[in-house]
Amino acid sequence: MTDIRWDHAREARTGIPEVIFGRGKTVAQVVRLFEEAKAEGVLRIATQLGEAHLAALQDLAEVDAESRTAVLNPRPALDQPPVGLLSGGTGDIPVLREAEAVLTALGHPVRTFFDVGVAGLHRLQGVMDDVRACPVLIVAAGMEGALPSVVAGLVDAPVIAVPTSIGAGISAGGTVALHSMLASCSPGIAVVNIDNGFGAACMAIKILNRMRGGSR
Amino acid sequence: MTDIRWDHAREARTGIPEVIFGRGKTVAQVVRLFEEAKAEGVLRIATQLGEAHLAALQDLAEVDAESRTAVLNPRPALDQPPVGLLSGGTGDIPVLREAEAVLTALGHPVRTFFDVGVAGLHRLQGVMDDVRACPVLIVAAGMEGALPSVVAGLVDAPVIAVPTSIGAGISAGGTVALHSMLASCSPGIAVVNIDNGFGAACMAIKILNRMRGGSR
Amino acid sequence: MTDIRWDHAREARTGIPEVIFGRGKTVAQVVRLFEEAKAEGVLRIATQLGEAHLAALQDLAEVDAESRTAVLNPRPALDQPPVGLLSGGTGDIPVLREAEAVLTALGHPVRTFFDVGVAGLHRLQGVMDDVRACPVLIVAAGMEGALPSVVAGLVDAPVIAVPTSIGAGISAGGTVALHSMLASCSPGIAVVNIDNGFGAACMAIKILNRMRGGSR
Amino acid sequence: MTDIRWDHAREARTGIPEVIFGRGKTVAQVVRLFEEAKAEGVLRIATQLGEAHLAALQDLAEVDAESRTAVLNPRPALDQPPVGLLSGGTGDIPVLREAEAVLTALGHPVRTFFDVGVAGLHRLQGVMDDVRACPVLIVAAGMEGALPSVVAGLVDAPVIAVPTSIGAGISAGGTVALHSMLASCSPGIAVVNIDNGFGAACMAIKILNRMRGGSR
Amino acid sequence: MTDIRWDHAREARTGIPEVIFGRGKTVAQVVRLFEEAKAEGVLRIATQLGEAHLAALQDLAEVDAESRTAVLNPRPALDQPPVGLLSGGTGDIPVLREAEAVLTALGHPVRTFFDVGVAGLHRLQGVMDDVRACPVLIVAAGMEGALPSVVAGLVDAPVIAVPTSIGAGISAGGTVALHSMLASCSPGIAVVNIDNGFGAACMAIKILNRMRGGSR
Amino acid sequence: MTDIRWDHAREARTGIPEVIFGRGKTVAQVVRLFEEAKAEGVLRIATQLGEAHLAALQDLAEVDAESRTAVLNPRPALDQPPVGLLSGGTGDIPVLREAEAVLTALGHPVRTFFDVGVAGLHRLQGVMDDVRACPVLIVAAGMEGALPSVVAGLVDAPVIAVPTSIGAGISAGGTVALHSMLASCSPGIAVVNIDNGFGAACMAIKILNRMRGGSR
Amino acid sequence: MTDIRWDHAREARTGIPEVIFGRGKTVAQVVRLFEEAKAEGVLRIATQLGEAHLAALQDLAEVDAESRTAVLNPRPALDQPPVGLLSGGTGDIPVLREAEAVLTALGHPVRTFFDVGVAGLHRLQGVMDDVRACPVLIVAAGMEGALPSVVAGLVDAPVIAVPTSIGAGISAGGTVALHSMLASCSPGIAVVNIDNGFGAACMAIKILNRMRGGSR
Amino acid sequence: MTDIRWDHAREARTGIPEVIFGRGKTVAQVVRLFEEAKAEGVLRIATQLGEAHLAALQDLAEVDAESRTAVLNPRPALDQPPVGLLSGGTGDIPVLREAEAVLTALGHPVRTFFDVGVAGLHRLQGVMDDVRACPVLIVAAGMEGALPSVVAGLVDAPVIAVPTSIGAGISAGGTVALHSMLASCSPGIAVVNIDNGFGAACMAIKILNRMRGGSR
Fold first, then answer.
1. Residue C213 predicted with pLDDT over 70
2. Cβ contacts (< 8 Å) between C2 and chain A: which residues?
3. pTM of this prediction?
4. Going by C-beta distance under 8 Å and a sequence separation of 6 or more, which residues neighbour residue F141?
5. Over its length of 216 residues, how does chain D's per-residue pLDDT go in tens digits?
6. Is residue B134 within 8 Å of residue B157, measured between CB atoms?
7. If you count residue pairs, one on C and one on D, with CB atoms under 8 Å apart, how many are there?
8. Cα–Cα distance between F151 and F154 in angstroms, integer?
9. Which residues contact E84 (CB under 8 A, 6 or more apart)?
10. Taking residues H115-125, what's their average pLDDT?
11. Nearest CA to CA, how far is H17 from chain E (Å)?
12. What is the maximal distance between C-alpha atoms in chain A?
């Protein structure tokens, strides 16, 4: 078994600590990384965990099956307005839950607005006042991926768009949603990889970290 | 020069006469087909005409440079509510003008709703009462192609979606808009090829022809 | 478990009630939505159900394993000519069965014409009189997807083309059939996503709803 | 300028002499190859010629602008039934003219059946008796490329399918027609590259050469 | 369960009887088609059979696990030189075995030349005399798909190229081999779909049927 | 000529005024929009202008040929640290100049770091102190698009990645750079469309607008 | 079962003996090839072995589960500096282990530098002195595939780049890494197929074999 | 006009000096870089030059229109065996000429073997003795790109494969040749980007530089 070279200085350099990407790692590798963190009393986060990882971490960390994450020693919640997490449909929610796990582990509060897809605009319009109060928005959608375009035309917060792999036929796997978000006619959107709730959270955290100090 | 085999019986079979597809045809071929129609006093329509075609047909037919069409002996206008033509942006309009030319040549009135894209939803909401009065809608959009999804969630008329080649980067050429429309989360949409205003008009005409007799 | 936000007003807005898309939903979520409908005595339709969904709904609704659908409290049959459902091969039939389940649940009668693919044209020619009597046609094909092009050249009804994922090698997954239908040389075709029998039915229903009132 | 290494033994090995592919060759290179053939009194064929090539060869060989070919010292016509050349539309004809130029230069007679596309099946049915008399068929189509599938279901001759780059939107460039022909549900079709009339002719010639001796 | 509409007249029209494509068909459907053929004493062929199909047909027909085919009442062998079947590697053999099963069921003898790929040319050169004696060649290769190009440059027989799905990384699934064969710099090649041994056999049979009568 | 429906309320809603996208618009349309802005004394910005647009606006606005932009009545510069604009190579600079034109028109100062691509890391390392002082970074690269990944691993500011169409062979057009940036192994990157300097600027402005008030 | 035609002369011709590619081969085929080599006392190498192959070879050869290889009768180690094997992340290691197995079986020593990806450049910089001592480098990376570009800008040794299938969303399967490496802005890189550790080793061996004799 | 940041230390680091990539650079930029080199008496190389670049450099450097390169102060020829440059067809030659210009500017002799494509194997076999004498081979091919696979099976030198954009239909632009080379069944091949003669030369130079010192 090959050892893992940990990037201890990443948080100092980038504001975000190294996070364990579970896919392709053995249960033993992941467990040891959490045991080390427990011994040192430091924060540890893992994403994209499989069933076996989740079971093995049950007593070591706070695990969440929907988002497939585990968190140990989360940071205390910061006193700031929440990041808004919006989803087009029910199937997009696990991706946002991954973002939520990373954000809250690092102290950033969130607020969720699920099932507000464009097939029934009244659902989005009913929550817009609360959405506008968020300093940053993470908007996830699959299928045709239209939700970030509609949202970005209505708010002055930056929109981090997350295409999801929810879809069928031509849109199975998320490429259609990804391309749709990149091609958006609404300004003020930037996009992360398909199903990449972790990446969206990191972008939000970098923005929020800088906001806390003003624009320095 | 190779002659063209005309499908004289197409209107009897399908409700839509053969229409000249200008691309790849010589000026002489197109002019002769209009001269024959003039001699016989029958309807003739051409789409996808180049500059040379348009110039040569100037005195033979009603030519329109924006839609690149020519029409001779149009049918009289039918007494029925108009087909709604909606565009996301300015660049999509020539594609809708092609649909308009074919529809009106065959007697079907239209009503246009341009520049109602999803980046500013209030523009669409301001015209929805008139949109709802149309029995069939043709909705064109380029870039992320989200407009048909939003419209179909608001109306009970069938939506014929036309992706346009308006776009840049990943969406240049219209494939992103096409895929987005096929993947729509809103029910009651069917899609034609990129920039195919003619095809959208044909689908609308087949629907309208059948509507005029009720569902028979 | 995350709750589902139901779009109760969808039928009023669009003529088609919200339908449960089974993929990605838990058995518990789907069962509860049917139990609510049973308690309220209202129509409920689900598509794309898995084995576990079908088993759990056995006593609650009319389930059909071939189309992977379930229906509760279907609407009474309307007095109108049937929607024509045509398939190129045997493998395309489940997709048409999904369309049939949605159409008949909402009261629209259908008539099926299976195995009439272009490799043996006499099979299609033998049923053309009955096909021509249908006000709307849904035509499904996989592989090279040529059937809608041939049919649309022979009828005056609108053709809703459904590419299926039936195929091998380059056509596995249905993209070849999809592109072929979009590129059709026959006018009067519009296309839905691969294997999207539900979407085809919705387009047909919007057309039929409008036909029932004439073109208003 | 770099010289060209001529494969003099190709006809002895394969039954087909080397043919000049004009694209990417200079006018001087092409002219010299024809002058050499004139001096030696041997057959020479060039395809894919540009305007400048055609002009320079005007007095040296029989040039044809529609097929962009030039032929010197063609072989006498063989006494055998003609190869059938079928096209879906008008735009496919130049590709078949290239095949015709190569076939007739090597002595194989042809018979053309143009504009018999699937949007109006009666046109094909009207010529089927003559089509059935051909020992080999070359069938060209663009757009959705359905014609070879329909033809192959009606004849016992081998069908060499040639996709053409005629199309628009998703089918521009010929990939849709190519894939459609490869995916055909009709048996007894083999396919050459897009717009490759030359390649189709070569396959036909290899078949015909072998047929002339029976199956040996 | 939906019944199957059998195309009884296919052999009369095209020279090739309808063949059962096993994928997507139930065991019961396939068994019944063989039982009918047994009762009538006629030829029946099935390809692309699954494990369950093969087991169920064990006592009804001659089944072959490598090619996944079953044959009942094969035609007697014709007195003609064999079709040559060449493979680049070991993995391509099952595809050629499918072609062999169809060819021999219809009476056409074959000769195999396996493992003669371009990474070691001497293997091909060692069998070229026998290859040249075949009236038609079916050449299968995966990965970079170069074998048909090399073979076609050495023989005067028509080459039917079959790309196989053998490959890894960029060539997994066979698209690279398919495109390579279509793009071949050697004339006299035509291509069938990936892994389509059946289609290659059908093309060969149509050629051989015509050869038997000379070019008529 | 079709009129343009201006979205006057966009800045109030989103913090960014509507900007003219020059492609596909006539010179007359663009000139009139600048004349209106001049009459009203308001800001106007245009991007993606052609030669004819640039010439016609010469006396009406500040035009820049490298970025293909025009600006009228820019906002005064804000007192805040500059947005960092980094490019991998020389060819990426026009895309960053478009971002610069939009940012400075709206009062946001910038600082450029050009030609710091990964083929010579010392160039980037030499400017890292200044890069780290920027609150937001826009990083443009073509070819393999690796620069944003390297930069994001070194800073705590959010990185807006802009793939450019600079490249050759497989990377011509920018898709490789786009995909590379989406797939980055470094956290804290979000991506805009190919060559979309305008979109990157809008995302930066939304972040900066929010930073100016802290996280509210 | 079909036999395998072994290319005994490959090492004499190319410097590299034939190696067994395990995928698609039966356990019996692979075992027999090792038994033959054992009887003859010659070197034998297999790659891409499945679980069953590995188990069956346990007592016959040195098997390695991480690299999925087996080696019998390896050559003695040559006295030369080691090939450098670099990986971006942990997931890329099995691909390098395959290269290592082939290199060491043929006597070429290696040195590994794992987990030195571009998200934390300091890790690469810390090992550069040792990397520069290697005559040839094999650099594997998944996701955005940037590592070979960065390395090649820092060394004078040839870089053989191996894209790996490690990735998610748009980069799943390795195509993004492959394209990124081909598009590299750093000179002195050549690329092999995705996950092709074997191919990278072969290229390195051909280089090293020639180096041992100087440039001859 | 933006200045260019020159990487003066590249040759010290990598063994290859920075080379001017002409595309996207102005004539003035390129001329100035050559004037600086002339003043300093140092080597300068430019590739991918346009007509205007070539004309402007006529009196400053040795320019070559076929390869679109310019060289000033080339290094003296080294005493070593030549790099072998092989092409499949005539159209691939300019790409090899680019490699030749870079190699000879840096003192590495070359030997060319043009027009040895796989459609006529005897041409390659006739030169194999000379090919085997080369320490490194650069093999260029378009269309199906099979030549490197055949060559690598016959030699013990490393093969650097260069796909070219020569092709038509599916192979236009070079992607088919690229994929074919990556998928090669012959070991000991590594691949550079389409038409990238420069990149192939750089890989060869890094190999040769190391060979000159043995494997160090």
1. no
2. 66, 90, 93, 114
3. 0.95
4. F87, F88, F89, F92, F117, F147, F148, F161, F162, F163, F164, F177, F181
5. 456 678 888 899 999 999 999 988 899 999 999 999 999 999 999 999 999 999 999 999 999 999 999 999 999 999 999 999 999 998 999 999 999 999 999 999 999 999 999 998 999 999 999 999 999 999 999 999 999 999 999 999 999 999 999 999 999 999 999 999 999 989 899 999 999 999 999 999 999 998 876 443
6. yes
7. 117
8. 5
9. E110, E111, E113, E130, E131, E134, E136, E137, E138, E157
10. 92
11. 33
12. 54
Answer whether H4 sits within 8 Å of F93, measured CB to CB: no
> Tokens standing for G159?
């870089």
Tell me the CATH number for domain H83-211.
Answer: 3.40.50.1970
Distance from CA of H175 to the nearest CA of G (A): 11
- Tell me whether chains D and F touch (3+ CB pairs under 8 A): no
Residue A143 tokens read as 């299928």
Angle of CA points D68, D74, D79, to nearest 5°: 115
Domain layout of chain C by residue ranges: 10-72, 83-211
Instruction: Specify the pLDDT at position H216.
Output: 39
The SS3 assignment for F20 reads strand
Helix (H) or strand (E) holding B119: none
Q: DSSP for H38-66?
A: HHHT--EEEES--HHHHHHHTTTSEEETT
For the four alpha carbons of F143, F144, F145 and F147, in that order, the dihedral sign comes to negative
Q: Contact D10/H115, CB-based, under 8 Å?
A: no
Among A38, A18, A22, smallest CA distance to A30 is for: A22
Token pair belonging to B199: 């095809």
Measured CA angle at C201 (ends C199, C203), to 5 deg: 70
Closest CA to H90 of D47, F169, D25, D46: D25
Sequence-separated (6 or more) residues with CB below 8 Å from residue B186:
A118, A119, B148, B149, B150, B152, B153, C14
Report whether pLDDT(F3) > 80: no
Sequence-distant (6+) residues with CB within 8 A of A102 are: A19, A45, A47, A69, A197, A198, A201, A202, A205
Q: Which residues pair with G45 in a beta bridge?
A: G71
- Max alpha carbon distance in chain H (Å)? 54
Partner residue facing F120 (CB), from G120, G153, G183: G153
What confidence score (pLDDT) does residue A79 get? 95
Residue G215 has pLDDT above 50, yes or no: no
Whether the per-residue pLDDT at F78 is higher than 80: the answer is: yes
The answer to whether the CB of D87 falls within 8 A of the CB of D116 is yes
The closest of H97, H132, H91 to H112, measured between CA atoms, is H97
Nearest to C24 among A66, A114, A166 (CB): A166
Option in F2, F10, F194 nearest B169 (CB)? F194
Q: Which of A87, G95, C212 is nearest to B156 (CA)?
A: C212
Radius of gyration of chain B measured on its C-alpha atoms: 18
Residue in chain B lying closest to C198 (CA)? B187
Chain D residues lying within 8 Å of H169, measured CB to CB: 163, 165, 174, 178, 193-196
8 A C-beta contact, residue E188 and residue D203: yes
Sign of CA dihedral F22, F27, F32, F37: positive
Half-sphere exposure (CA, 13 Å, Cβ side) for C2? 22
| One-letter identity of residue F156 | D
Spans in chain B with pLDDT lower than 70 = 1-4, 213-216
The reply to whether residue G212 touches residue H214, judged by beta carbons under 8 angstroms, is yes
pLDDT the model gives residue A7? 82
pLDDT digits (tens, 9 = 90+) for G112-134: 999 999 998 999 999 999 999 99
Alpha carbons within 13 A on the beta-carbon side of G178:
25
Set of chain G residues whose Cβ sits within 8 Å of the Cβ of A50: none
Question: In the structure encoding, which two tokens stand for residue G68, read together?
Answer: 């999925």
